[in-house]
Amino acid sequence: MKVAAGIPSPSGILEAALYVDDLDAQRFYGEVLGLERIQRVKGRHVFFRVGASVLLLFNPDQTEQPTTNPDLPVPPHGARGPGHVCLILTRDQIASMRKHLLNWNVPVEAEFDWPNGARSLYVRDPAGNSVEFAEGHLWG
Asked: Which DSSP state fits 125?
């Protein structure tokens, strides 16, 4: 598909969101994966730094509610059911992460090399979301 001329092309993804019924599942991201927690609002969300991006974990019951803050008119949003996020690691880092996850008793759901040679490793977070670790050249 060709991009139309004159339309700005985003330079990256600033944030990605997963929805979890139990925000205490954030322990997986903070303790197991070692991501830096940058914000938490009890019962509503927990945000983690991932390189230049942010991973948002939301309680869907709360984000479906309209905002009561007129200075931050974020529209209601959310999803139900397992989502997916892919985090970039090198091949050696993926191997280290695999060992680390198994030490935490996190089962590996799948791992393989894509046709272009990029390696991927998949696990599930406590909420059932698919968490992939892949080499950065996965998409060319």
From this structure: -
CA-CA distance, 40 to 26, in Å (whole number)?
Answer: 10
**pLDDT per residue over 5-16, tens digit each?**
778 877 788 999
CB 29 within 8 A of CB 36: no
Give the DSSP H/E element, type plus range, for residue 66. Answer: none
pTM as predicted: 0.90
Sheet arrangement for strand 15-19: 15-19, 53-58, 45-50, 36-41
CA-wise closest residue to 109 among 51, 101, 117, 96: 101
Q: How far apart are CA 127 and CA 120, in angstroms?
A: 20
Rounded Cα–Cα distance for residues 80 and 21 (Å): 9
